[in-house]
């Protein structure tokens, strides 16, 4: 008899601060330790390195892992599915409480290492062990952790399968079933199918876009949309700025390729651009043409803007952070007139990102767009596809894995209920085989 517990630590009441603990008898595997971005004064370049964990827990910014004291067992490993801050942003604040190694794919492990190095409050000494997608980390004779390749809006993302004597537990958060990605390989459908046949006891699965009908468009579609906006024009000598997620390496890779086709020099700007993109290049995930320029510090960015204005906007393609209208981000500063770069009538600002649906972000973004328009800028909005599965992708995964139990995660109650309705269509029963968990609750499964 194997005693299994699924502990919802964070990310079950909201978007962000994701953390789940999987207990197999006395061994506990923690999956993800994330930050809730809208509770910190939000920026991809967010700085929380000097803040105390208890202060951040109180703000609702990181998971309240004090509940782990009530869970019987020892934490044997901390596993990270991918390198977004809502999945790794709390590691530097919480991991030191556990004498357990941190496991992740090579790119994720590199980002975790940077996160820990920039921490100013806690000394995090946990060993970081990179494991390739498709690899296995042996916890003990009976429990192992398998990383399964998937696609998402950051490279090197995985599902985590915890293998136990009773069967596998699958953590499937943050994915899209993209069969034509522009970087990396498609999800490992063969392994997922096999896993389903071997028997999955329980699957925790993101519910972010479970309300959205249909299938998530491939990244190839965003690639083509960008090409259309950047190259499909007779007015090719105007100033253009593209803004996107700094961690979306595949998207940035496409923009750099198009800059080359346009005969423009790509200029990456922002501290987080510097972090995510340079790391991906150094690790060999992407190649750059020799003329790419990267600036992370504010004074270097302003110097680069000065040069662009002097030599001609039509020669450069700035790729910047700040698409959510975060105060102090580069695009907000440009829109306010706080940089040497001047938006003139007809200049194009291309948003290769969606608006994160929270009232604060929507207000910031509205303010940003208004300022750009007041200066005469033309806005190309939502040149983007999501990194999260829509309803029919969820249906496909559920049928592929066919778990005994399923728990929607990574979302608010509205997202969970949309997932539960879809699971009921597939024959699952609420409270029996599909479960609604809230932060701080544990679901017991005996196998």
Automatic annotation (TrEMBL):
<dbReference type="InterPro" id="IPR004613">
    <property type="entry name" value="RNase_J"/>
</dbReference>
<feature type="binding site">
    <location>
        <position position="82"/>
    </location>
    <ligand>
        <name>Zn(2+) 1</name>
    </ligand>
</feature>
<feature type="binding site">
    <location>
        <position position="87"/>
    </location>
    <ligand>
        <name>Zn(2+) 2</name>
    </ligand>
</feature>
<feature type="binding site">
    <location>
        <begin position="384"/>
        <end position="388"/>
    </location>
    <ligand>
        <name>substrate</name>
    </ligand>
</feature>
<dbReference type="InterPro" id="IPR055132">
    <property type="entry name" value="RNase_J_b_CASP"/>
</dbReference>
<feature type="binding site">
    <location>
        <position position="174"/>
    </location>
    <ligand>
        <name>Zn(2+) 1</name>
    </ligand>
</feature>
<keyword id="KW-0963">Cytoplasm</keyword>
<feature type="binding site">
    <location>
        <position position="410"/>
    </location>
    <ligand>
        <name>Zn(2+) 2</name>
    </ligand>
</feature>
<dbReference type="Pfam" id="PF22505">
    <property type="entry name" value="RNase_J_b_CASP"/>
</dbReference>
<dbReference type="Pfam" id="PF12706">
    <property type="entry name" value="Lactamase_B_2"/>
</dbReference>
<keyword id="KW-0694">RNA-binding</keyword>
<comment type="function">
    <text>An RNase that has 5'-3' exonuclease activity. May be involved in RNA degradation.</text>
</comment>
<keyword id="KW-0540">Nuclease</keyword>
<comment type="subunit">
    <text>Homodimer.</text>
</comment>
<dbReference type="Pfam" id="PF07521">
    <property type="entry name" value="RMMBL"/>
</dbReference>
<dbReference type="InterPro" id="IPR011108">
    <property type="entry name" value="RMMBL"/>
</dbReference>
<dbReference type="InterPro" id="IPR001279">
    <property type="entry name" value="Metallo-B-lactamas"/>
</dbReference>
<feature type="binding site">
    <location>
        <position position="174"/>
    </location>
    <ligand>
        <name>Zn(2+) 2</name>
    </ligand>
</feature>
<keyword id="KW-0862">Zinc</keyword>
<feature type="binding site">
    <location>
        <position position="152"/>
    </location>
    <ligand>
        <name>Zn(2+) 1</name>
    </ligand>
</feature>
<feature type="binding site">
    <location>
        <position position="86"/>
    </location>
    <ligand>
        <name>Zn(2+) 2</name>
    </ligand>
</feature>
<dbReference type="InterPro" id="IPR030879">
    <property type="entry name" value="RNase_J_arc"/>
</dbReference>
<dbReference type="InterPro" id="IPR042173">
    <property type="entry name" value="RNase_J_2"/>
</dbReference>
<feature type="binding site">
    <location>
        <position position="84"/>
    </location>
    <ligand>
        <name>Zn(2+) 1</name>
    </ligand>
</feature>
<keyword id="KW-0269">Exonuclease</keyword>
<protein>
    <recommendedName>
        <fullName>Ribonuclease J</fullName>
        <ecNumber>3.1.-.-</ecNumber>
    </recommendedName>
</protein>
<dbReference type="InterPro" id="IPR036866">
    <property type="entry name" value="RibonucZ/Hydroxyglut_hydro"/>
</dbReference>
<keyword id="KW-0378">Hydrolase</keyword>
<comment type="similarity">
    <text>Belongs to the metallo-beta-lactamase superfamily. RNA-metabolizing metallo-beta-lactamase-like family. Archaeal RNase J subfamily.</text>
</comment>
<feature type="domain" description="Metallo-beta-lactamase">
    <location>
        <begin position="16"/>
        <end position="225"/>
    </location>
</feature>
<keyword id="KW-0479">Metal-binding</keyword>
């Amino acid at each position: 008899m194997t005693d299994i517990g699924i502990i919802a630590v964070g990310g079950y009441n909201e978007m962000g601060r994701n953390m789940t603990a999987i207990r197999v008898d006395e061994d506990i595997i923690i999956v993800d330790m994330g930050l809730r971005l809208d509770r910190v004064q939000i920026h991809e370049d967010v700085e929380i390195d000097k803040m105390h964990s208890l202060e951040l827990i109180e703000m609702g910014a990181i998971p309240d892992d004090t509940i782990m004291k009530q869970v019987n067992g020892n934490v044997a490993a901390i596993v990270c599915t991918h390198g977004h801050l809502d999945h790794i942003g709390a590691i530097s604040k919480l991991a030191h409480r556990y004498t357990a190694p941190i496991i992740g794919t090579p790119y994720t492990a590199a980002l975790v290492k940077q996160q820990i190095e920039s921490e100013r409050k806690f000394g995090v000494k946990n060993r970081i062990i990179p494991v390739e997608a498709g690899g296995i980390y042996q916890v003990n004779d009976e429990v192992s952790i398998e990383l399964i390749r998937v696609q998402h809006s950051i490279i090197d993302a995985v599902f985590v399968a915890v293998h136990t004597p009773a069967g596998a537990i699958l953590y499937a958060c943050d994915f899209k079933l993209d069969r034509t990605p522009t970087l990396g390989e498609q999800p490992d459908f063969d392994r997922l199918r096999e896993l389903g046949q071997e028997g999955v006891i329980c699957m925790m699965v993101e519910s972010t876009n479970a309300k959205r009908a249909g299938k998530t468009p491939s990244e190839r579609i965003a690639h083509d949309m960008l090409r259309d906006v950047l190259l499909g024009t007779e007015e090719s000598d105007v100033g253009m700025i593209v803004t996107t997620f700094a961690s979306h390496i595949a998207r940035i890779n496409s923009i750099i390729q198009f800059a080359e086709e346009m005969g423009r020099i790509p200029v990456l700007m922002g501290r987080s651009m510097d972090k995510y993109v340079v790391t991906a290049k150094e690790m060999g995930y992407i190649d750059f043409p020799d003329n790419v320029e990267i600036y992370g510090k504010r004074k270097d960015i302003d110097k680069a803007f000065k040069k662009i204005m002097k030599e001609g906007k039509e020669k450069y393609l700035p790729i910047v952070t700040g698409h959510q209208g975060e105060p102090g981000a580069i695009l907000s500063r440009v829109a306010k007139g706080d940089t040497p770069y001047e938006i003139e009538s007809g200049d194009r600002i291309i948003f290769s990102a969606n608006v994160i649906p929270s009232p604060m972000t929507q207000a910031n973004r509205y303010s940003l767009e208004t300022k750009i328009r007041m200066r005469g800028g033309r806005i190309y909005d939502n040149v983007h596809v999501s990194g999260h599965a829509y309803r029919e992708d969820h249906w496909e995964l559920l049928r592929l894995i066919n778990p005994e139990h399923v728990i929607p995660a990574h979302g608010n109650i509205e997202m969970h209920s949309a997932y539960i309705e879809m699971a009921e269509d597939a024959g699952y029963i609420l409270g029996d085989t599909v479960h609604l968990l809230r932060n701080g609750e544990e679901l017991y499964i005996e196998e």
